[in-house]
Amino acid sequence: MNKGLIKFFLDLGPLLIFFYFYKKHGMIYAIMPLIIATIISVFFVYRIDKKIPTIPVLGAIIVTAFGGLTLLFDNKIFFYMKPTIVNLIFAVILLYGEIILKKPLLKNLFEGSIKMTDEGWNILNRRWLYFFIFLALLNEIIWRTQSEEFWVQFKVFGLIPITVIFTIMQVSLIQKYRIDQ
Fold first, then answer.
1. Has this prediction a pTM greater than 0.85?
2. What is the pLDDT of residue 181?
3. What pLDDT is recorded for position 92?
4. CA 70 to mean position of chain CA atoms
């Protein structure tokens, strides 16, 4: 099995474990298995890549923090707001790069695998910035207006497909501004 596919399942695994425990026992009882599965997943990504995986580690810290707050205070709002806060943090980071540093931070992250003109990086950076804001707003609307069951379904089975579709939609931009080597 290829490394990319294994890492995809390691990313998806904790969510599926969360969903399983949620269906069996409810949200509060699903959070601790999610935290444990996320930490285990990060460990396996580390073993595969032989380096500390920055984004998965950050994700594990955030899941542990918000899951821990939810359990500590017995208040699901912390967990509901986690996707909102995470997406807003990503948006602010990209905005900071654009306004303060005057450079698209996505270029630093993906320059090793994607070669594009600066104009292409600026457009891609802005699209992701708006997309993160969109996801934050969408999460807020859903958790505040829908049932817990609907929010969990959205979190587990909605966010990933929405993100994959958005990512695929960026391929034409990448191809348009690609630099041939």
1. yes
2. 67
3. 96
4. 19
